[in-house]
Amino acid sequence: RSAGVRGLCLGSFLLHAFKRVRKRVLRMSRIIVCLPLVLFAASSLTSEISEHENHEATPFEEDECYFAYQNASEAVQIKGKIYVKSQNFNSSLPPLCDSAERIASFNATHYLFSLAAVIPHFPKFVVKFNTSFVLSMTGNHCEYNAMTYRYETRQPPKLRKLMYMNDNRTCMIFVDERNSTAEAARCQLLQPEKYADEKVPDDCQKVYDDNCPGLNITVYHSYCKNL
Questions:
Q1: Which residues constitute the signal peptide according to the record (predicted)?
Q2: Which CATH number fits the domain 60-226, given the four candidates 2.40.128.20, 3.90.190.20, 3.30.1330.10, 3.30.450.40?
Q3: What DSSP letter does each residue of 191-224 carry, written as one string?
Q4: What would the pLDDT profile of 116-132 be if each residue is shown by its tens digit?
Q5: Using one digit for the tens of pLDDT, what is the confidence trace for 66-119?
Q6: Is the distance from CB of 195 to CB of 170 less than 8 angstroms?
Q7: Centroid of chain to Cα 126
Q8: CB 127 within 8 Å of CB 151
Q9: What is the value of pTM for the model shown?
Q10: Lower CB density within 10 Å: C or N end of the chain?
């Protein structure tokens, strides 16, 4: 009888131990299953935050740290032709020898410019047209930093912002209007005729390289001045 009792007790003990081990295994399996879910959720949340921050990032042309380099009123006072040296986007026609020149001033915000370009495959055929330049302020700017004008004869006027102009006014960068860095920057790097054959200043080139990714289309060549 005592042996039978001991057998029952041993069986009960083993059954109880088995249940405890089973519970621990189930608990561990739940943890292992949930861990990837937690990691995935954390990863997803981090990705969403990062994407949101990138989407909301302030473009260079609206960053208050650089407002001193974005005075469009000074840019339109440059005399003579201003040539597009390079740009990072395709135009309706391949850009070649594109230039702009102020020919009249009506008031502090309204100017008349002559735009010129060479027709591809016809290197001596220059097309010119006049367009109004109307200055405006965008974002938190307290001085005029943007201008609206017709860039192509077949397109409506568009607003473009002065992204950067160096202190000596020997180079400048214009960019199409955009709301955040989530939108691609369509940029043109320009230099006045007097400096067009010189190397682009390092500061101007760095701003362009850092903020205007994409194509690298050379628009200006030394023969453009003779057309």
A1: none
A2: 2.40.128.20
A3: EEGGGTTSPPPHHHHHHHHHH--S--EE---GGG
A4: 999 888 878 899 999 99
A5: 999 999 999 999 999 999 999 999 987 789 999 999 999 999 999 999 999 998
A6: yes
A7: 31
A8: no
A9: 0.75
A10: N
